Automatic annotation (TrEMBL):
InterPro entries: Cyt_P450, Cyt_P450_CS, Cyt_P450_E_CYP52_fungi, Cyt_P450_sf. This is Cytochrome P450. PANTHER family: P450, PUTATIVE (EUROFUNG)-RELATED. SUPFAM superfamilies: Cytochrome P450. Keywords: Heme, Iron, Metal-binding, Monooxygenase, Oxidoreductase.
């Protein structure tokens, strides 16, 4: 969950209004008034930016601090899988797969070494990826049978 907050693979998204509609906030100078969206207008949003908002996640929003989820509950401010009727149907499968793979890696390797001296750089295409790939080496746990 913390990784998906800071680096949501679908970092931007948009919706087109199929009828005249009013969003409850987003308008006015402070963005706190209702906002009129005309039929066929497109509203684009960035989960990457929203997930780093200090007013939503606190002053340390830019920090990877998984413990924050002990006291906050994900809502419409956390949307790596989107929400509503078109929410990602693969969400639970993806989370289960990521958890399973992480546990298997931790059990099989005692260390993950970074092999890339270059600074971290992201690349935004349709999805958010790593610009330079993921250059790591894995040190096997010698106690495990081959
Ligand atoms: C970390 C992994 C994943 C992320 C972050 C993710 C994210 C998303 C997001 C944001 C959407 C909504 C797109 C939109 O409506 O604009 C979406 C839709 C979708 N996802 Fe995923 N997804 C992930 C994994 C998966 C997996 C594992 C599957 C299938 C096994 C899957 C199947 C789908 C499908 C079929 C849709 C389209 C749903 C529709 O339009 O009604 N996703 N996903």
């Amino acid at each position: 969950m913390p990784g998906l907050r800071l680096f949501p693979p679908i970092a931007t998204n948009s919706r087109m209004a199929n009828k005249d509609t009013i969003l409850s906030i987003g308008g006015g100078p402070e963005g706190k008034d209702p906002l009129f969206v005309k039929k066929n207008q497109v509203v684009t949003y960035s989960t990457y930016v929203m997930h780093r908002r200090k007013d939503l996640f606190g002053d340390d929003a830019d920090l990877f601090r998984p413990e924050r989820w002990e006291t906050i509950k994900p809502g419409w401010d956390y949307l790596p899988f989107n929400g509503g009727p078109r929410i990602c149907p693969g969400q639970l499968f993806a989370l289960m797969e990521a958890g399973y793979t992480t546990v298997r890696l931790v059990k099989a390797f005692r260390e993950v070494r970074c092999c890339d001296g270059r600074p971290w750089m992201e690349q935004l295409t349709l999805s958010l990826t790593l610009n330079n790939g993921c250059m790591v080496s894995l040190v096997p746990d010698s106690k495990l049978p081959n």
